[in-house]
Amino acid sequence: MGHFSISDLEQLSGIKAHTIRMWEQRYGLLRPVRTATNIRLYCDDDLRRLLNVTTLCGRGKRISQVARLSDAEIQAAVLACGNDAHDYQLQVNALLAAMLTFDEVRLNQLLDDATSKLGFENMMLQVAYPLLQRIGLMWLAGTMNLSQEHLLSHLLRQKLLVATDALPPIGSAEAPRWLLFLPEHELHELALLFMNYALRSRGQHTLYLGQNMPIKELTMVCQFYRPNALVTVLTTQPERTRIGEFAQELLQLCPAGRVVLYGNLARQEGLVLPPNFVAPPLMTDFLAMISENNFAPVSA
């Protein structure tokens, strides 16, 4: 069971803390326990109920009406909400609520419904990524169960692989060639998998090497594949103090082509990257960038 502070609930639901307190005091909406120092702590059930109530209030229901409903009635009302494909908040809240109860069937259904309405790429950008950002807040708060995160990551990874495999073969031999990999000991590959999908869907060649790839192993790959650009995601690796050294090692592989470093570690203050390197702040920045075609080949 999670243990959330009221500030955690505010970040995860988007409802101000003073409003949550008012709903709690006036309507008995949530049932926190108190610590020995009189601090309110909320459980998974409280968070799930707040997310569902937020969804209904966002659809025009009055809190006074919603608060009188049982949990089952609230859930039924959420499921009966209109199928607005662009109500991203509704979809994110529903996914987060399903994740908290390990409801894999519901998670799959919600992701598939969002994909059918929005298209796969927009589902990832408008629903999956905001959900992952919420989960990141839960990690920072120490309220995320590792098994919950693994469930969602596994489902998204599976859907990325299936969607990529369903793309047609790349026909043009002149299309840019991208080499995608994660640094040694780096295991967080959802962003890289999505980049691979985005490149392939735009008719560009990719060679996806995945997790935990030592740089020394890339020399031979570059000799045979001759990519026009390298792409990697820096989530936890290398160590923050080694990013500059890591960039110089990549520069030896790619002195003339484009090198894309994505992730917070690539955007730390004071970091100076070689001229042919780019560190897009957002995934949408990367998507805008890959429409360019001025890629020089990597020197072996």
TrEMBL record:
Repressor found in the keyword field: no
SUPFAM superfamilies per the UniProt record, alphabetical: Cobalamin (vitamin B12)-binding domain (SSF52242), Putative DNA-binding domain (SSF46955)
InterPro entries registered for this protein in UniProt: Cbl-bd_cap, Cobalamin-bd_sf, DNA-bd_dom_put_sf, MerR-type_HTH_dom, MerR_fam, Meth_synthase_dom
GO molecular function, one term: cobalamin binding
Domain HTH merR-type stretches: 3-72
Keywords: DNA-binding
Domain of life: Bacteria
PROSITE patterns hit by this protein: HTH_MERR_2
Cross-referenced CDD domains: HTH_MlrA-CarA (cd01104)
PANTHER family, per the entry: HTH MERR-TYPE DOMAIN-CONTAINING PROTEIN (PTHR30204:SF93), REDOX-CYCLING DRUG-SENSING TRANSCRIPTIONAL ACTIVATOR SOXR (PTHR30204)
Protein name: HTH merR-type domain-containing protein
